[in-house]
Amino acid sequence: MGQLTLYTTAGCHLCQHAEDILDAARYEFVAIDIADDLGLMERYGVRIPVVRDAVGRELGWPFDGTQLAAFMAQ
Fold this sequence. Notes:
The protein is α+β, with helices and mostly antiparallel strands. The chain has a single domain (about 5-74), classed as Glutaredoxin (3-Layer(aba) Sandwich). About 40% of the residues lie in helices and about 20% in strands. The protein contains 3 helices and 4 strands. The chain has helices at about 15-25, 40-45, 65-74, and strands at about 5-10, 30-35, 50, 60. Strands 2-1-3-4 form a 4-stranded mixed beta sheet, with helices on one face. A hairpin with a 5-residue loop joins strand 3 (about 50) and strand 4 (about 60).
């Protein structure tokens, strides 16, 4: 399956919801706070939360568990 990255930031209730979806589906992921990197802020500032897989595919918000599973199955 490979590593998943969740682009997020502190105080983002949608990001917390995305984390909950990933946790419920038992996917391992690394949460990256975009506020720590200007380049990430420019890329994801209005798009978070975003899940990125090891090959670079991205699933942007909104998504639910079913959409996440479909993304992971591709």
